[in-house]
Each structure stands twice: as C-alpha cells, then as structure tokens.
Design brief:
Elongation Factor Tu (Ef-tu), domain 3; elongated; 15 strands; Rossmann fold; eight-stranded antiparallel β-sheet; seven-stranded mixed β-sheet; alpha+beta; 2 domains
C-alpha cells in the first residue's frame, strides 16, 4: 500500500461540539490509513486573521507533502471559493478567504484549483453550512493518498487568491510601526514585526500609552511586569511575566504598536 501523507486540521470549531470528530470521520471514510494531526480548534470564532497566523506558525514543523486542512469560514455557503493549493513542501485546503495567506507567504503557491469536482467530495449535495465535513476534509484525504491536484477542480491562478487586508509594518523616524496580529491563550500580544528587525539593536516597545522594555526571555522582568521580546514564532511580542499583556494593555487584533530604537 502506498504511504499516506499526513493531514493536519485547524478550525474555530472548539471541542465541545462533535464537528472536529466529524471531519476526522470524513477523512477516515475516504481513507482510513491517512494520519491526522490537530493544530488547534480553539481559535476565536470566525477570526480568519487568527487562523492565518496559527496555520503559518505550525506548518513549517510538519514533514514534506503534509496536507493542511484549515476551516475558519464565516462565508461558508456563499460565493466564496473552496480551494486547494500546492506549494513547495505540501498542500493546503480550505476557503479562499485569506486563511491560507500566511502559509503561502512563507511558501509561495505553485498551483491552485477551485474545488469544483464533486467526485472527490463526501457527497455531491454538500451542506451549505459544513464544507469542512463535506468538501475540505475529503479533498484533504484524497491529496494525502496521492490524488493529483489538477483532478480536484478548475485551475486557479495563484495571484487570484484572496488576501486578508492586514496592516504591514512601516519604518518610522525612530523605529518601526506595526500592529497586533495574534493574541495567544496566555494573553501574549504577537505583533506583525519580525524578530529579525530587533536583533542586535537596543530598543523598547510603545503600546497603549506604555513604554515597554525589551527582554530576552519572560523572566528578565519581575513578575507582573510588561516586557517585549522575540517569541518562539519569530515575531516580536508583548508579554507580562506571569500574567496577560492583553488584560493589562487592553489591546486586540489590529491594535497599533511601535518599536523604538534607543539613540546611539
């Protein structure tokens, strides 16, 4: 039997309801030998930007040819496209709403299709409210067993994929202006400024009227104190040693921040 590639699942479904298990059942029905790995299902409901960040953060740690099935889909049942994309190192399946954009910024798409071929769906009459079960999960299983991308639907130009209108970091006279792109379960505020921008610099962060000192690790500051550092994900984040920066600063997705260079 040919080897099956891994499938990852990411969603905002939570774990209270059976939706995640149902998606796994759809994969197992398509091919019971496909290995399945959960990335997260605890994303804030309908927060596409949070899903975009989480998928891009996790995907690099999976082996080549992994199929990433992602479902944060407030437009399910509308005219938004369902897509599958091939990139160097694997595949991504999900709604064409910008959810896959962070991953595809790391690994530029090589080919993409709109999922228009119902032979690879769970049913030819999919639910208007659960494409994760009826389209995305089965398509992911077919890719994992080696089905060519081109068989799954109509060719789509990669540059036609939807992108989220996210703010980009901008250089200022004194540093870099950016924003919050993700809030994790600890209340850490992950910015859209890459950590490499602050390496070998003396700097601090400014957010919500506070000047926040930079640090190498959380314990560099006393318990309860704010700090800014490069997180394990490679982005600058605002944190509190033993606490929640989100609660202390009252910032959310998209809130502005600034990194300031110390004068030479």
């Amino acid at each position: 039997m040919p080897a099956r590639h891994p499938v990852t699942l990411l969603s905002d479904f939570g774990l209270q309801d059976p939706y995640v298990g149902i998606m796994k059942g759809a994969i197992a029905t398509t091919d019971p030998h496909v290995p399945i790995h959960d990335l997260t299902h605890q994303l804030p409901a309908q927060n596409v930007a949070a899903g975009r960040f989480a998928l891009a953060s996790a995907a690099p740690y999976f082996p080549e040819a992994t199929v990433h099935v992602a479902v944060v889909d407030p437009g399910v049942g509308s005219q938004r496209r369902g897509i599958a994309v091939a990139f160097e190192g694997g595949f991504a399946v999900g709604p064409d709403n910008g959810l896959l954009g962070g991953l595809l910024a790391l690994y530029p798409p090589q080919a993409a299709v709109t999922l228009t071929e119902p032979a690879y769906w769970r049913t030819r009459s999919p639910s208007a409210t659960f494409h994760g079960r009826d389209i995305f999960a089965p398509v992911g299983a077919h890719l994992a067993r080696g089905t060519p991308l081109a068989e799954l639907g109509e060719r789509l130009a990669p540059d036609a994929l939807v992108q989220l209108p996210l703010a980009e970091q901008q250089a200022t006279a004194t540093g870099i202006a950016g924003c919050i792109q993700y809030v994790d379960a600890f209340g850490n505020l992950i910015t859209n400024v890459a950590g490499q921008a602050v390496r070998d610099r003396h700097w601090w962060a400014r957010a919500a009227g506070c000047d926040i000192p930079s640090a190498r690790t959380y314990s560099d500051r006393a318990a309860g104190e704010l700090l800014a550092l490069e997180g394990s994900h490679g982005w600058v984040e605002l944190a509190v040693n033993g606490g929640s920066a989100q609660s202390q600063l009252q910032l959310e997705w998209g809130s502005p921040i600034e990194l300031v260079w110390h004068p030479a």
